[in-house]
Each structure stands twice: as C-alpha cells, then as structure tokens.
C-alpha cells in the first residue's frame, strides 16, 4: 500500500479495543487529485477501516462526485434518486438541496447561505430530534447543553434503488460552540458527550459481533423487507428517544395513500451485508424503514436447543419487527461504541455506507451556520449477504 494511514483520535468515551481497525486518517494525499494506484489503495483502506478522514482538503463538487463514483463506476444518480426535491411529503425533503451543476452532491447543514456553488439563497435546516422523536428534550435541558441522536441510518432510498457503497461528506463550514451531551432517554441513563453538530458513527461489524449466539443465528438467517417509499411512509410517525427506529403508534401513512409504487421495486435485503474486501459481516438495517422480517429455518444438523425461530418465521407485525431489531441494534450504540467525529473545516470523510450506521446529532440555533457537501450514489448492485459457510458458522 502506497498511502500513509494514521489512527483516528478517539474521544475519552470510546473503548479503544472496539476501534482497533475502525477509522483511519489518510495523510499526504489530495483525494481529488490522486494517482490510479493511490485511488485503489484508498478503496482498499476504506473497506478495511470503514471510515477514512482527509484533513485540510479543498475539494470541488466535481472532484467529490468523481471520488464517490470511483467506488462504483456504473453508479450515476444520487442515492435517494433524482427527484427528491419534488417529493415534498418525504421526511428527507427539507434536509437536502442539490448543487445545481452537480446534483448528485447535496448541500446539507444549518442556517441561511448565499451565493454558494450556484445557489443564490438556501435555508438549510439541521435535522433535529425535535422534529422526529416522540418525546423531546425540554427547553430548560436544551439550554444546559443536552441533546439527542437524530436518526441512526444507512444512506439509502430502500425502494427501487440499491444502497450506495460509499458516502463522502465534506465540511465547508463548521459551527463553533461548546460540546453537547447526547442523552439516550431510554431508561438506561446512558449519555455521550459530543462535539457540537457531530456526525456519530457505529460499526455494523461490531453490531453483529456483540450479539449473543442465539441472535447471531437469527441475524445470519434473516432478510429485512422495507416499506414502499419508506421516507414518505414514516413521515407522520415518531421515533424512539435514541433515534434508533420508530415508536409503534400506527401513525405511518397507509400503503394505499403513498405515491404510486409496485411490489417489484420494494427492497428486501439480508440483515447482514458482506464486506467486499475483508468478507466480514456487518449488521446493516435501517430500523426506521423496515416493515417485515423473513427468517429462514436453521440448517439441518444445527443444534436447536436455545435457538430462536428454529423453524423460521415471517414477522409482519410492525411492533414485533421493531422490538426484535431494537434488541439486536441497541447494544451497538452504547456510548463506548460510538465514534462522534469532531469536525474541522475542510475535513472530508468517506464512509463505507454498507458497513456503518450513522446519525446527525445535536441542536443548532439559526445563526450557527453549518455547510456540508454530501454525495452518495445509488449502487449498481444490491449488497451481498452471508455465504452458505457463514450460515453454517453462525446459525
Ligand atoms: Fe446520512
């Protein structure tokens, strides 16, 4: 490998033994202007380490698109499709603004911006838990610096289009301010001190590895069915206080009131996705968009004692689906397993969107301007699930 990698600085809250391979800073390379050999090394490093950071980079939207596309040369359109701006009923609508000359690169952030990359004026809205969670942090506690994770997710349309392989996130302008304390508010007392407006990441590999054997067996045998137009479907519903999925209060839009959809375009993905380089399995489920779990029976000759769903199951009760997903995913967002990135302006992060979950965090005032360029591309193929050897190993 010809590139120079350094460890990411972990916060005091992170348990280093869980981050041995997770995250690297790439030194001495401009990611928008590198040789084919360096680009190949960057690709390998991303899949080995899940997150790559480049510091002090000046990057045009064109360079960002080109770098993102290098991971999947046959990909072309933005990960949520080309029509997101007209889908006003989508929960994503207000958060994203396409850069006119490179619409696959989206402007995200907070506050009013003027004359930026061809956009004369745009009001950016930092996604806050207050517009999405069922309960919210009180104004009094917010003034003391308490906040929450917004929504743990994979960047993916999860209808018609395949989940992007990589997301690139470039910090043009980073708001200044004190750390905030992210509260889980789920009865555990868990809290995490985070930099203002951090992006928080967790490893999908760790999410799988920390499961007890009986849930590893379920994970390796399960496929997840997503809603049609999931971000329209979920828009009226409200999330759990950890941002890890939705409360089951029957608020979702009925399927027959969604924009037109067809069964063929509904996404059914394995619960575990295989890393293309390391072959490790990551638990990759967007908990807010899932509707059904399809669990295969145990392979023949596998011990059945203590096994869950030994004969397989098709769980289509939304509350049951969410309860099982939460039981499987919540341990991996424990404070010591979260990497909250402390952004500096001109940081570029590449993350393996098929190997991590991430979320926006925090609360910003309108005058705390945050400007980021984000790019991901609907992939040319669906993710690969566990192999038959994986199923024998883990079931
Ligand atoms: Fe995202």
Describe the model:
The protein has 395 residues and is an alpha+beta fold. The protein folds into two domains: 247 residues, Double-stranded beta-helix, CATH 3.60.130; 128 residues, no CATH class. The longest helix has 14 residues. The relative contact order is 0.23. Bound molecules: fe (ii) ion.
Topology:
Layout (H helix, E strand, L loop, with lengths): L3 E4 L16 E4 L8 H14 L1 E4 L6 H10 L26 E3 L2 E15 L2 E6 L14 H5 L2 E2 L18 E8 L6 E4 L7 E4 L4 E5 H6 L3 H9 E5 L3 H4 L34 E3 L1 E3 L6 E3 L6 E6 L17 E3 L2 H12 L9 E3 L6 E5 L3 E5 L9 E7 L11 H7 L1
Parallel strand pairs: 2-3, 7-9
Antiparallel strand pairs: 1-2, 3-19, 4-5, 5-6, 5-21, 8-19, 8-21, 9-10, 11-18, 11-20, 12-13, 12-16, 14-15, 16-17
The site of fe (ii) ion has 3 residues, from loops.
SS-based class: alpha+beta
Which range best describes the helical content: under 10%, 10-25%, 25-40%, 40-55%, 55-70% or over 70%?
10-25%
Any idea of the CATH class of the largest domain?
Alpha Beta
Helices, by number, come to 8
Q: What global shape is seen?
A: globular
